Amino acid sequence: xxxxxxxxLASFATVLAGDLPGRxxxxxxxxxxxxxxxxxxxxxxxxxxxxxxIATYGVYDCAVLTRDDGTRxxxxxxxDQAEGFLVAAMAPAGLPAAAYAGVREPDGLAVPADPFHAAxxxxxxxxxxxxxxxxxxxxxxAALASPLPEQIELTWADDALTTPVPESxxxxxxxxxxxxxHDTATNLLVLPGDDTAVQAQSVxxxxxxxxxxGVGIGMRHPARPALAAxxxxxxxxxxxxxxxx
Length: 245
Hints:
245 residues, alpha+beta, five-stranded antiparallel beta sheet, 6 helices, elongated, disordered N terminus, disordered C terminus
């Protein structure tokens, strides 16, 4: 347990960094008399109270906490004069803007001035939300790296659903994560129908994920065999015309 009781942003951020899981460093950006740290604030991944505070008051001093895996947290004072601080995640570097489509922001927290309680709140709430959001954005980025079809077709085969193996490896992986397996005999991905409730749940989940990537989903039954051509009917013999005299 630390014996420091920080009351200002710089020392609060330093102690907070030391109490979070993993190895973190803290860099304080002081107020230089009107310098707005807009370039840092632009990377804050938040659409809630932290974003509102930044938009309302601007950012003239802040601290950035960085974990050794690249995760970053943004720390500012409660600019509405309330006690405590605001802590929010910063977006990861290197992902295209399109990767964030459909990803819910891991909105930040208002935390007390006690860095130990603040560290507990960040660990239990903010960091898990951040991990989920990053994983979602990286899946999107992987899908964007290879061309995606406009739609995939699912075909009923008895009780199973099948689809050709997509050219996109991330798309194939997505289907595999939801129960499709590769049938090497037919070179199709197959979703078994042994448990129809599980099958339906998988289809709904796949549809939601594909929609996030802009890919549609179609369902069709296999084509029925063509009907045998009907034999032509024998031509009827027209009755002979007779003249009446």
